[in-house]
Design brief:
heterotrimer; A mainly alpha (250); B alpha/beta (256); C mainly alpha (255); A: 250 residues; mainly alpha; MetI-like fold; 10 helices; B: 256 residues; 6-stranded mixed sheet; 4-stranded antiparallel sheet; 8 helices; binds adenosine-5'-triphosphate; binds magnesium ion
Chain lengths: 250, 256, 255
């Protein structure tokens, strides 16, 4: 978008939307949308409170644990699938199935098996994130140039060396792409888990605010959540671009 | 055989074109005689495509103007048809619809436009492939579709941007011969962009050599003597070989 | 012989997984972990007495309405965004943020505004499905191969013709896959809505049988909705391959 030859920065329209929010809020059009300025004030008030800090901490811990598990399991499984046809044919239907399945339906099972707590939420996060990580790692390994593999062989690389010095790096752009999407899905997973098991983290906070009709509190938390999710996904996209400069030229 | 110089179909007058800071064309002037084939020849990136798109009305020049039959060009018009380097065929439409697509956009009734299209499909040697889709055709066949589409709108001026660059050498030679007979058969003006010196000399009545950016016409060559000799004689004609050498001599310093 | 091998392996791995499930249920690993066979017989019972189909009908209602709304609105908006740089500037950021954000967090708000009825559930489906539909459509429209658009202009196509006869068909494979991803996200939303807002349809079977500790029925309901979603999405994918077979290979530039 350019105005008089000047290029408006991407995402700058969000400022316009913020102004619109403020106007709608001030106009008193609806009780459910308080002015942005009020939401921001509330945000500064609650951001230091133990309730908020607690929720944030619980969410971040569950999220990190879930993602860590998804990455630690997903990447090796994906690489294995990419390298071994037998494993691939055994696992691929399941991976594809879980990738598109409505995983929300599994949360009740996790609740009865692992209780109404942290453990279930961590597993929910992992479940949301892992499938795309597996699939991308697999695709990354599958596209590795045969001549690169043969090069490693011809120079007498040990299997371990070949893995760490060739396969991993050659597949890295795809793997990172998978991790980025997995992380975004994981964020959704952790929140869905908390909503359904609403006694922990932001789930509990939402319950509290909405049952007391504390609208600006509610929006303040949403704002923090969305901003963090967006920043995270942009950061990962940035990292991915830095690594994938060689993706096109392999 | 040459038409008088007053018979000019297309005129480019003092054309300049800047892409931001990049000056692609500067003060380029060139006449295109009616009924003849003019080639634009020059090193890569010198602005041949740019000039062609300006004539087509797809790009606006920064300054200067183009006239077709004495009328200034302000945009694409029914008097010009474009043959694209990468064919620009609709992948979801079969050969018949692709060839008739120019007419379809002009609002010609279906039965009429398909009758016209069928004629040109036969002309370019694709009879029997009317129902095929682009992905089922070879590169050379796809370019014939693009050519038939341009012919079927019956424009007086045909603009061709490296039309043969994506086909193999044998097909290319066949195309060049076909093009020669096409120029003779149809009373149309051809403007032809190419990288290949041999191709330019082989098919052209007039060759405009462009210099690298900012580009002007450095030289106009009119190979003529061997034009009547018949397709297979031309490549052995001494004049043909001399002109090829001459052009290479003047272009080679830009290639280093 | 090749497809046979792949089929055999799929059956084998299904056998292994269901076998492991059976054994884990027989140990049992948890009081709330029924065996595979118990679950299947609960499923069979629900199929035979028809409860399952009634439940599917309930669950699919907000899903279908939501997908229909998201498709109409999302494709329209995406087309607009892809064609106009001004709308691109204005709307794209919203959908980019929506795509990254955990929109499920809006559910408590939706319930406050629209209550616990169908409207809220439809909304949940919409907010889940819309972003990917909009972003796919606008991206595909923006990336229509330039030569095709120039071809349309040089043959004097009107703006309308170029949009309807060139840009839309060229973009349709990606728009369609956006729809498929939207349906997948919509399923997540529909089930979430039934579990979080009010238990109806499959969500009701899940919640109710959990409350009376009828775990085989609960697992069967979950199993069935997952199978339903996966089958439906597979069908869409097949349809996509069938409809746009030539499109992806047909661009001359990929010769
Ligand atoms: N859309 C554009 N934006 C910026 N610069 C451009 C654009 N199109 C062309 N140019 C520049 O203008 C110059 C001329 O380009 P043009 O495509 O006309 O060259 P050409 O002679 O057709 O080259 P080639 O023989 O490689 O096809 C090039 O240096 C190119 O960098
Ligand atoms: Mg060019």
């Amino acid at each position: 978008m350019t105005i008089h030859g000047y290029r408006l920065p991407a995402m700058s329209s969000l400022v316009l939307w913020a102004v619109l929010w403020e106007i709608v809020g001030r106009s008193g059009l609806t009780f459910f949308i308080p002015p942005l300025s009020e939401v921001l004030q509330t945000l500064f008030q609650i951001i230091g409170t133990p309730a908020f800090q607690n929720a944030l901490q619980e969410t971040v811990v569950a999220f990190l644990a879930g993602i860590l598990a998804a990455v630690a399991i997903g990447i090796p499984v994906g690489i294995l699938m990419g390298k071994s046809r037998l494993v691939d044919e055994m696992l691929l239907p399941w991976v594809n199935m879980f990738l598109s399945a409505p995983l929300t339906a599994l949360v009740p099972v996790l609740m009865v098996l692992f209780g109404f707590g942290m453990k279930s939420i961590v597993i929910t996060t992992t479940l949301f994130a892992i499938w795309i990580i597996i699939l991308n790692s697999r695709a990354g390994v599958k596209q590795i140039d045969r001549s690169l593999v043969e090069m490693a062989r011809s120079f007498g690389a040990s299997p371990l060396d070949a893995f760490y010095k060739v396969y991993f790096w050659a597949a890295l752009p795809e793997i990172l792409g998978g991790v980025r999407i997995g992380v975004i899905r994981g964020v959704k997973g952790v929140i869905i888990g908390q909503l359904l098991i609403s006694v922990v983290g932001f789930g509990a906070l939402f319950e509290l605010y909405s049952s007391n009709f504390l609208m600006s509190h509610f929006w303040a938390v949403l704002l923090v959540l969305f901003a963090m999710a967006f920043a995270l996904s942009e950061l990962l996209a940035h990292l991915e671009r830095r690594v994938s400069y060689y993706a096109a030229k392999r | 055989m040459r038409t008088p110089a007053s018979e000019i179909a297309v005129t480019a007058r003092r054309i300049s074109k800047n892409y931001g800071a990049v000056e692609a064309l500067r003060n380029l002037s060139l006449d295109f005689p009616r009924g003849q084939l003019t080639s634009l020849l020059g090193p890569s990136g010198c602005g041949k495509t740019t000039l062609l798109k300006i004539i087509a009305g797809l790009l606006e020049p920064t300054s200067g103007e183009v006239e077709v039959n004495g009328k200034a060009v302000t945009g694409p018009g029914p008097d010009r048809a474009f043959v694209f380097q990468d064919f620009a065929l609709l992948p979801w439409a079969n050969v018949l619809r692709n060839v008739a697509f120019g007419l379809e956009l002009r609002g010609i009734a279906r039965s009429e436009r398909e009758a016209i299209a069928e004629g040109y499909i036969r002309n370019v040697g694709l009879a029997g492939f009317e129902a095929s889709y682009p992905h089922e055709l070879s590169g050379g066949m796809r370019q014939r579709v693009g050519l038939a589409r341009a012919l079927s709108v019956d424009a007086q001026v045909l603009l061709m941007d490296e039309p043969f660059s994506a086909v193999d050498e044998q097909t290319r030679r066949k195309f060049q011969e076909d093009l020669l007979s096409l120029v003779q058969r149809e009373a149309k003006t051809f403007i032809f962009v190419t990288h290949s010196i041999e191709e330019a000399v082989y098919v052209s009545d007039q060759i405009a050599i462009l210099l690298p950016r900012p580009s002007r016409v450095s030289e106009i060559i009119r190979p003529g003597g061997f034009r009547n000799k018949g397709a297979d004689q031309i490549r052995r004609d001494p004049e043909y070989l001399d002109i090829v050498d001459e052009i290479w001599a003047s272009l080679r310093r830009y290639v280093e | 012989m090749m497809p046979q091998r792949s089929l055999m392996l799929t059956l084998l791995s299904a056998g292994l997984v269901f076998g492991a499930w059976q054994i884990a249920g027989m140990i049992p690993v948890s009081y709330a972990f029924p065996t595979f066979l118990e679950t299947m017989s609960a499923l069979l019972r629900m199929v035979l007495d028809g409860t399952l189909f009634v439940a599917f009908g309930e669950t699919l209602k907000p899903l279908l309405v939501g997908i229909a709304i998201s498709a109409a609105l999302g494709i329209g908006l995406g087309l607009w965004i892809g064609l106009s740089s001004w709308f691109d500037w204005l709307f794209s950021p919203i959908f980019i943020v929506m795509q990254a954000a955990p929109l499920a967090a809006l559910i408590p708000l939706l319930v406050m505004v629209y209550g616990i009825g169908l409207t809220s559930k439809v909304f949940v489906v919409c907010i889940m499905a819309m972003p990917v539909i909009v972003l796919n459509t606008s991206g595909a429209v923006r990336n229509t191969p330039t030569p095709l658009k120039e071809m349309g202009r040089s043959f004097l196509g009107s703006e309308r013709d170029i949009v309807l006869k060139i840009i839309l068909p060229a973009a349709s494979p990606i728009i369609f896959s956006g729809l498929r991803l939207g349906v997948s996200a919509g399923f997540i939303g529909a089930v979430l809505a039934e579990l979080k807002i009010t238990p109806t349809g499959v969500g009701d079977i899940i919640s109710y049988s959990r409350s009376i500790a009828d775990y085989p029925s609960m697992y069967a309901a979950i199993f069935s909705i997952i199978v339903l979603a996966v089958l439906f999405l597979n069908l869409l994918e097949r349809l996509e391959d069938f409809l746009f077979e030539g499109n992806n290979r047909g661009y001359a530039s990929d010769t």
